[in-house]
Amino acid sequence: LLLALALLGTVSASHPAPRQPQGVPAGETTQLRYAVVTKLRTYSGAQSYCKDVYRGQLASVHSAARNQELQKLAGTYKIIISPWIGAVTSRRAGQWESYWEDSSPWNYANWAPTHPFHIVTTCTTLSIRDGLWRSHFCFQLRPFICQY
């Protein structure tokens, strides 16, 4: 089964998924690495870039400490546009819902007042100024944060 999944690109046969360390919130792991990419991409373009270049995905955030870490990391790149992170808000089964693209649990949020929008499907940015999350149209060109 692992070989079949590895051939399909969903699991690496030589690098099994890291185990969850004790004392770390569900959905968060200390082994993750992050990369701020200053090339401007749409949300889907950013997802593809993270997958193709890092074999990862857009960052999911599961704690205030991780949110602050990513805010500071992005701030070191002198970017002025808030980067994409891996959250989407859309209507599912008749209700608005925010979720992480990597399917990790939605156990932390840091929305700015009036966000997320509940009008159309939106993608999420992390403000390097205040650390708050904001909804934006997914076709906008922005820098982004990959996790791998």
TrEMBL record:
Residues 34-147 form the C-type lectin domain. The keyword Disulfide bond applies. It comes from the Eukaryota. SUPFAM superfamilies: C-type lectin-like. Pfam families: Lectin_C. SMART domains: CLECT. The keyword ATP-binding does not apply. Keywords: Disulfide bond. PANTHER family: MANNOSE, PHOSPHOLIPASE, LECTIN RECEPTOR RELATED. This is PRG3 protein. The lineage of its organism: Eukaryota, Metazoa, Chordata, Craniata, Vertebrata. The gene is Prg3.
